[in-house]
Amino acid sequence: MIADPWFYAVAVPAVLLMGVSKSGFGAGFGALAVPLMALAVPVPQAAAIFLPLLLVMDAFGVSALVRHADRRLLALLLPAGLLGTAIGTLAFGVLSAAAVAGLVGAVTLAFVAIRLLRPPRADAPPPPRWLGFALGAVSGFTSFVAHAGGPPVGFYVLPLRLPPLVFSATMAVFFAAVNLSKWGPYAWLGLIDGRNLATALVLMPLAPVGVWVGVRIARQISRERFERVFLAGMVAAGLKLLYDGLAGG
Predict the structure, then answer these.
(1) DSSP H helical segments within the chain, as ranges?
(2) Short-list 226, 244, 185, CA closest to 21
(3) Residue 143 phi, psi (nearest 5)
(4) Which of 20-24, 80-84, 117-121 has the largest mean confidence?
């Protein structure tokens, strides 16, 4: 396993941050977790270490929230997310980590700008379902390459004005399915190895802590404040990913 103290200095907060985002609360901040860990290890290795942790986080999040999920919305998003995962598998060896980070960051900031400049009216119709499918696929792709799927799908789901608990539950189920679909491709790409798995095992006790905190907050926070936190997470993630993309390019 990795023994570098600097790695754990960045990995511990990254795992806790991802755990909170897995509850649906602050989901935008989850996109920061892999770039944060990537301060100590390459992006593909950070993504590989996170995958077993995500499995545990998903189990806790889904068990706590699944009964509140919007099944009709999942019927739209899940096939799209799995399609994005397949595209990510094919593109993984073509696109550099910096290019993916920069692209995700730019798109995320564009989403936030549109949201802030043209906030949805209370009586506005929901966004079209084709947009949900397209952004679900983008989310599956960015989730595969950097576990940064929250901002794209959040841009579609947030205007639906779901109660925070329903939002959190739907995102938990969606990403549980997407993350489960990554195991075969990650193994095929050679990212699942003994060193990464051993490192993930050391970090495993932290996995449920962030999820528990996020679920507790999602049960108590108002929808308006929930949206503000989510958008703040998207801005932070977008800026960090764009910076990583430009610096790496």
Answers:
(1) 5-22, 33-37, 43-65, 71-91, 97-117, 129-146, 150-157, 164-181, 183-188, 194-203, 207-218, 223-248
(2) 226
(3) -65, -40
(4) 80-84
Do residues 61 and 212 lie in contact, with contact meaning Cβ atoms separated by under 8 Å? no
Query: Which of 32, 101, 24 has its CA nearest to residue 57?
Result: 24
CA 74 – CA 30 distance, rounded (Å): 20
Contact 163, 150 (CB under 8 A): no
Residues 106-115 have pLDDT tens digits of 877 877 776 6
Report the predicted TM-score, pTM, of the whole model to 2 decimal places: 0.74
Residue with token string 């989403």: 111
Instruction: Please give the structure tokens belonging to residue 96.
Output: 């550099």
The answer to whether the CB of 17 falls within 8 A of the CB of 33 is yes
| Cβ-based neighbour number of residue 92 at 10 Å | 20
